Amino acid sequence: MNVLLRMIFAVYGLLGLALSVVVLLEVTGMYALLQLVTDGGMPQEVFWTIVGLTAFVGIVSLILFLTSFRKGESSKDTLEVPTSNGYIAIKKDAFESALGRFLAGRDGIRMTESKVNMHSKKNMVDIDVHYAPVSGRGIQQTGTELQEEIKSYLENWFEVTVRRVRIFVEDPAKSKSKKRVV
């Protein structure tokens, strides 16, 4: 969320919250700025309708006001690694490309999909790899080796922490229709 949008949310939230509080206090009779339209008061249905709508607007305004101060990640497609001179931004595509090149050279597997989840606040990445075995090697042994090799390769190459590597084994017959990443 950019700064201008945050400021708009903050102003709207603050004004909406203040207006909601004033209307609720007026309607409940605790704050008498305005006279009721009639001396007999307002009907019960109108009273609860106004209270409900005002409470709803107040809650939405409070949520917008509070979220305007929440600092989100700058981009989900970029991992920003701080250095003494600023930061180095590593694109998600770079991770996926390197992972694809690494897996393309592996014998006995047919990669069908890989996904990289980046956590800028912690300077960590999570890797998900879906593959179909094409050799007679043990699936658990291949998966464990693959996890360790992927983690080591990416940590050495990008110098960031790979928090988790998850391997998903798929049916080789179903993966033939998908393109192999080379």
From TrEMBL:
The chain crosses the membrane at residues 7-34, 46-66. The keyword Transmembrane helix applies. Keywords: Membrane, Transmembrane, Transmembrane helix. NCBIfam families: anchor_AmaP. This is Alkaline shock response membrane anchor protein AmaP. It comes from Bacillus daqingensis. The gene is amaP.
